[in-house]
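Q: I'm building a small set of examples for a reading group on sequence design. Run inverse folding on the following structure and report the sequence directly after it, with nothing in between.
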C-alpha cells in the first residue's frame, strides 16, 4: 500500500504500532478504502481513496489475505520517507458508525 500525505500526518503514522483500515461501498457501487489517522482522539482523520482499476482491487484483496503486506509512506513531494511490513488482521464484527 502506498500512502501519500503531509509530513505531519506521516509523523503520526510512523509512530503507530498498528493502524485501522476500512472498506466501504458508495451508493453508486464504487468501492473505497480508508486509513484512520489517530491525530485527534475525538475526531481522528481519515485518508481515503476510491478503487479505480481492477489491478488496484486485486492488490487490495491480496494484501488483506496474505500473512504480511508492505506499507510505503510518501511525503508531499512524492519522496518515500518510510516503509514497513505489516500483518493484516481482518475483522468483520465491528459496528458501523
Amino acid at each position: 500500500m502506498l500512502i501519500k500525505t503531509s509530513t505531519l500526518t506521516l509523523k503520526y503514522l510512523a509512530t503507530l504500532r498498528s493502524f485501522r483500515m476500512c472498506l466501504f461501498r458508495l451508493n453508486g457501487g464504487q468501492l473505497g478504502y480508508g486509513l484512520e489517522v489517530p491525530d485527534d482522539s475525538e475526531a481522528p482523520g481519515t485518508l481515503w481513496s476510491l478503487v479505480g482499476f481492477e489491478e488496484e482491487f486485486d492488490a487490495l484483496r491480496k494484501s488483506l489475505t496474505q500473512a504480511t503486506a508492505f506499507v510505503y509512506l510518501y511525503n508531499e513531494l512524492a519522496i518515500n520517507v518510510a516503509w514497513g511490513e505489516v500483518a493484516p488482521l481482518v475483522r468483520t464484527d465491528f459496528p458501523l458508525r
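The mean pLDDT is 85.
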